[in-house]
Amino acid sequence: QVHLQQSGPGLVKPSQTLSLTCAISGDSVSSNSGAWNWIRQSPSRGLEWLGRTYYRSSKWYNDYAVSVNSRITINADTSKNQFSLQLNSVTPEDTAVYYCTSGPGGMDVWGQGTTVTVSS
Amino acid sequence: DIQMTQSPSSLSASVGDRVTITCRASQTISSYLNWYQQKPGKAPKLLIYAASSLQSGVPSSFSGSGSGTDFTLTISSLQPEDFATYYCQQTYSTPITFGQGTRLEIK
To answer: I need a surface site. Which of A12, A13, A98, B91 has the fewest CB within 10 A?
Structure first.
């Protein structure tokens, strides 16, 4: 049974970097059939997919939403079996609940969610 | 980007009712369509994947159909625990996109 555990700060100052980590149990971040996503949810934007990382044929791939493409990095850490989100130069519009999820298709496992507020 | 449009945006129904929610994609997505249920303060829960496959552990009162651009989620007999917000999602291409949600309320 796969479980995702999120960690990271709930308050970030404007112009700084939002950093969150998602630890995986019950599966491997380097699985050749998995994909590891970050999604956020806010009243103004609804559910918004931010990006994903996945491992195929000995190579890592990333896909990012255009809306955050210049500010986002998603990395996998195989030694800790986890993946992370970094979002640079945040503004109050980045205030949201952030989720990590599994699955290249239907996202059947979700982290518990982290409410991130961007405020000075 | 593929736009996902759900209708209705909100719906009032009674326990025991049959309810249908529709989702339309702005271009064909084959069967790469998933449905989620979300309750306040909780993460979305996968109900249906690949348009019509029931996720393990989800009651058989939930069903999905459609392909191409038009999809439906049907709840055959509403239970009290089914009152929630429902979202469709396409995973045909990136960026992965969601519908705006359908809020199902008790009449």
So the answer is: A13
Write out pLDDT tens, residues A73-103. 999 999 999 999 999 999 999 999 999 999 8
Say if the Cβ atoms of B91 and A106 lie within 8 Å.
yes
Average pLDDT score over residue span B75-93: 97
At B12, phi and psi to the nearest 5? Answer: -105, 130
Which class for B106: exposed (0-12), middle (13-18), buried (19 or more C-beta within 10 A)?
Answer: exposed
Among partner residues A46, A49, A106, which is closest to B95 by beta-carbon distance?
A49
Q: Are A29 and A82 in contact (CB under 8 A)?
A: yes
Structure-model confidence comparison of residues A76 and B107, the more confident one: A76
Tell me if chain A has a CB within 8 Å of the CB of B2. no
Across chain A, mean pLDDT equals 96
CA nearest to A90, candidates A116, A59, A61, A60: A116
Distance of CA A15 to the CA centre of its chain: 19
